[in-house]
Amino acid sequence: MAPLSTVLIVDDEVRSQEALRRTLEEEFEVFAVSGAEEAHGVLEQEAVHVILCDQRMPGTSGVSFLKQVRERYPDTVRLIISGYTETEDIIAGINDAGIYQYLTKPWHPEALLLNVRAAARLYRLQQENQQASLEIRTAEPVLRKRVEAKREALRNLYHFERLIRGEGSPLHSVCEMARRIAPYDISVLITGESGTGKELLARAIHYGSSRADRVFVIENCGALSDTLLESELFGHKRGAFTGAYENRVGLFEQADGGSIFLDEIGETSPAFQVKLLRVLQDGEIRPLGSSRSRHVDVRVISATNRDLEADVKQGRFREDLYYRLTTFSLHIPPLRSRAMDIPVLAHHLLREAVYALEKPVQGFAEEALQAMMRYPWPGNVRELRNEIVRMLALSVRPYLDVELMSQHVLNASLEEDLTPRESDMAGGMLKDRMDALEKRVLRETLNRHRWNKSRAALELGLSRVGLRAKLLRHELGKESPKDKK
């Protein structure tokens, strides 16, 4: 259990002193004295975190006493409490005495507790900050090595091969084009549906450029209002708007020398687009509430799942900003149009899930992979990852089979197979046409029973051995190790 924060009460009125003590002593270790001389004695003997001092005391004022405390014990958090008549004197001395909070009489117990808790928390943060600064100074050589090692690891992690793809995938040409333009400081717009890997491609471009040793920052432009987005990107000065309690450095300034990834750029309002265009044109940002602009050197990579060309024609997106963002554009095709990527992606995502859930399996049954390749995956890679994590969580065998898949995935993946196609039934030998129909019936029945072969065999009037023979003949559900008995 952490030690209690210590509070020193300095008040010459006995009743007031006791009231303050009773309010605070359940949460804090409290010392109470009647004047400045006694208070100095306590400060010499005890590690005091917070001082709560009355303004009116014999011999000296609270402000004068706290000025002395600030010089000798600068880390102590100082609060002063007084009636309304001394307000001007206290305000005049607040800066010199370093007073954290001014409380007025009569005070409310809950309000007093809140202020003293905040003061104690500030003291702890100051101590942690000093400790961290000391550790950083003493460990600076080690930290530099670690930073370099981290940068190298990031370069190795976010390269173009990180976008997993199979043989003949359309992603090959996308990655090759991205690799060729990565070294040049030109803006890039990445388009594609949600979940296709636009952020991964943006990271690969950054870490494949001369800016790889500098920072890469991300902002989702569709998640914030104009004011908050402007504050996040360009920063703000204290008091610039309601809730701006301190200065904030924006992401453009943080990314100076590096790259910024603006996701969902198509969701920004026309008013914000004007401000962003000015930054891209001039290379300068002006924090909210500031009268001075600051130059920044940032490469902008943006992304959207919208058709920005259509939005430009409809007047929803500024044409001049569109051309600023699209010196080069790349399109990532959806997963449904690159089924050849699904097996390698599935195995990669399974390895990640096995590591995250600490639940090892050996892989997928063949029929599960075939079902995945037939499903359109409207949520793209993100949906595929979720499905694999779900299957792994439910699994009790070494291989993930179709019985673990979500029903809607199975239904959609086999929808084409449930109704015989005219092309299959219109020509060919009778045996071939009957085989095609039998294969579809088998698959539909297994799907309805979530690939429980015993139930499917019972419905079809077959033995389990007979069903297995038909499945092998039609190359349905190639046996996984759990079926080999």
TrEMBL record:
Q: Where is the Response regulatory domain?
A: 6-120
Q: Does the keyword Repeat apply?
A: no
Q: Which Pfam families match?
A: AAA_lid_14, HTH_8, Response_reg, Sigma54_activat
Q: Which residues carry this modification: 4-aspartylphosphate?
A: D54
**Where does the Sigma-54 factor interaction domain lie?**
164-393
Q: Which CDD domains match?
A: AAA, REC_HupR
UniProt keyword annotations, A-Z? ATP-binding, DNA-binding, Homeobox, Nucleotide-binding, Phosphoprotein, Transcription, Transcription regulation
Q: Which GO terms describe its molecular function?
A: ATP binding; sequence-specific DNA binding
The Gene Ontology biological process annotation of the record reads:
phosphorelay signal transduction system; regulation of DNA-templated transcription
Would you tell me the protein name for this molecule?
Answer: Hydrogenase transcriptional regulatory protein HoxA
